């Protein structure tokens, strides 16, 4: 589990119900409202348009990118643009072959099945997915031992959209069965600003352009984080009876949450400090860092490290992670002094 203080601002999977509700309320429904990721949107428009002209179900799509960058949102938008139903599930939620069979047989022609965290599907389930994706059929084994029988079920022509934060963990047979792959990148600050203005409008908040910029700068280039920060700022403004949210009120409220001007929270600082103090700046394995700060390696790798790499504080090398000079400057520590 991430720290209490980080829980609501990091794009963690452990979302509270309230935060999930926020995600849903602020989700754009049309491609034109999906801010940023211009190249991806352009490709997607052509891809959807061409399939529609041919009157065919679209090919299976793999979306990858860090948590909170818009994979689920995009899946909903694709379904809406094509005008088909979408069914949402996730890798860990499909435990048995029967679960997957029930989902697949309940789809209609053209429907989209969205599997979040598709890298976490178990291998047996994955093997059922192969023929389902390729030939729109599955083989179910009924009974056990010598009396077992195989039953072939035909499926509707569905489209699978898989989302993953860890494409390297996907088996190659599964990866190969996706017709197209789209990568979602970190957003530009300008795009995050637009998202914040849009969200503020939906939430009925008034904020200055400088305030939006200040939140954007601290949002780890991630829409979900931006929306959560906005929510914290709203709480602060409400308690202080502030009508128009200014740059100053953003600074005050986020300082209270110990989120600094780079968007770094206490856990980020613990990671950096641990690398500097306990491992002399590396190279060090992420597992060792994780254990010194009482976090899971997976959480560090998925939620924290990508941003620290993006801003040039950590480098990944074949021998392990290294703390950069920029990170030492941020920490106010001289390399080799501790
Ligand atoms: P993921 O599935 O990648 O974890 P989501 O699709 O759930 O991320 O996005 C998290 C939240 O961020 C959504 O509720 C949505 O409000 C917002 N969001 C994500 N991408 C965009 C975007 N490009 N434009 C506007 N809002 C976005």
What does this structure look like?
The chain has 338 residues and is an alpha/beta fold. It contains 15 helices and eleven strands. The strands form four sheets. A five-stranded parallel sheet has the order 2-3-6-1-7, covered by helices on one side. It has a two-stranded antiparallel ribbon with strand order 4-5. Residues 23, 26-28, 34-37, 67-73, 163, 195, 223-224, 227 line the site of adenosine-5'-diphosphate.
Summarize the structure.
This protein has 338 residues and is an alpha/beta fold.
Task: Jot down its keywords.
single chain, 338 residues, alpha/beta, five-stranded parallel sheet, 15 helices, 48% helix, globular, binds adenosine-5'-diphosphate
Layout: helices, strands, pairs:
Layout: H1 4-7, H2 17-25, H3 38-54, E1 61-64, H4 71-82, E2 86-90, H5 97-105, E3 112-116, H6 123-135, E4 137-142, E5 149-154, E6 159-164, H7 172-176, E7 180-183, H8 189-203, E8 206-207, H9 209-217, H10 223-239, E9 244-245, H11 247-256, H12 266-277, H13 286-293, H14 297-310, E10 314-317, E11 320-323, H15 325-331
Helix pairs in contact: 8-9, 8-10, 9-11, 10-11, 12-13
The protein binds adenosine-5'-diphosphate (ADP).
Strand order of the largest sheet: 2-3-6-1-7
Ends apart, CA distance between termini? 29 Å
Number of helices: 15
Low-confidence stretches: 1-8
Which small-molecule species are bound to the chains here? adenosine-5'-diphosphate
Q: What's the pLDDT, averaged over the residues?
A: 91
Helix/strand/pairing class, anyone?
A: alpha/beta
Oligomer classification: single chain
In sequence order, what are the helices and strands, one letter per element?
HHHEHEHEHEEEHEHEHHEHHHHEEH
Q: Helix fraction?
A: 40-55%
Tell me the overall shape.
globular
As a whole number of angstroms, the C-alpha radius of gyration is 22 Å
Largest sheet: 5 strands, parallel
Number of extended strands: 11
